[in-house]
Amino acid sequence: MLEKLNNILKNGRMLPLMEEFYTLQGEGAHTGQAAYFIRIGGCDVGCYWCDSKLSWNAKDFPPVSTDEIVERAAQHPAKAVVVTGGEPSLYPLDYLTNELHKRGIKIFVETSGSYILSGDWNWICLSPKRQFPPKPEMLRKANELKVIIQDEGYFEWAEDNAKLVSPECELYLQPEWSVSNKIMPMIVDYAMKHPKWKISLQSHKYMKIP
């Protein structure tokens, strides 16, 4: 039975689902857009300021049928899905994305880029982490680069990554929530001096929605 389950996980027919919910995208290029969120458990990047630390241990989330996840996503008015984590690139996602596309659903993913991402995506939001840098291939594929700014030293990290993405990639700086009041004036000033960057906010926290 265990071997059969492992084979199912390997081909993406089941995934360690942490949670799923219908809400508005709160960050980045698609802020305000309604979407169905699929949060997959499991992450080894280890950001100490992560606001979904409960997702880190995949063993806490028994595998769920990918077909069932797809059917629930398809029931909602907005034909848009955001796959997040945890770290989605830990799993084979070709089956998930193929089944969602069959239902006319656009698919967005949020990833650190620490592993090569599988699947067919309409939009890849790459949020690189210094302790586990993204793969060069993921930087080239990114549609959106969203860099979390914790202190002044992170601006250099943001620029290092911006040099490696495509010219069409949208660039965002986002304050780390716990220090947002302190760091926001620096981000505003930086964006005004370097207008290739836009500012992303965690607007869902202001709206008090998931």
Helix and strand layout, with pairings?
Blueprint: H1 2-10, E1 14-15, E2 17-24, E3 34-40, E4 64-65, H2 66-74, E5 80-85, H3 94-102, E6 106-111, E7 123-126, H4 136-141, E8 144-149, H5 154-162, E9 170-175, H6 180-193, E10 197-199, H7 203-207
Parallel strand pairs: 3-5, 5-6, 6-7, 7-8, 8-9, 9-10
Antiparallel strand pairs: 1-4, 2-3
Describe this protein with a few key phrases.
globular; alpha/beta; 210 residues; two-stranded antiparallel sheet; eight-stranded mixed beta sheet; TIM Barrel
Instruction: Give the termini distance in whole angstroms.
Output: 36 Å
Q: What is the domain total for the residues?
A: 1
DSSP summary, beta strand count:
10
Low-confidence stretches: none
| CATH level-4 homologous superfamily | Aldolase class I
Rough outline: globular
CATH fold-level topology = TIM Barrel
Mean pLDDT over the residues:
93
> What count of helical segments does DSSP give?
7
- Strands of the widest sheet, in order across it, are 2-3-5-6-7-8-9-10
Sequence of secondary-structure elements: HEEEEHEHEEHEHEHEH
**Oligomer description:** single chain
Largest sheet: 8 strands, mixed
The second-level CATH architecture is: Alpha-Beta Barrel
CA radius of gyration: 17 Å
Hey, roughly how much beta strand do the residues contain? 15-25%
Overview of this structure, please?
This protein is of the alpha/beta class and 210 residues long. The protein is built from seven helices and ten strands. It has helices spanning 2-10, 66-74, 94-102, 136-141, 154-162, 180-193, 203-207; strands at 14-15, 17-24, 34-40, 64-65, 80-85, 106-111, 123-126, 144-149, 170-175, 197-199. The strands form two sheets. An eight-stranded mixed beta sheet has the order 2-3-5-6-7-8-9-10. Strands 1-4 form a two-stranded antiparallel sheet. Helix 2 runs parallel beside helix 3. The longest helix is centred in the C-terminal third of the chain and has 14 residues, at 180-193. The radius of gyration is 17 Å and the shape is globular.
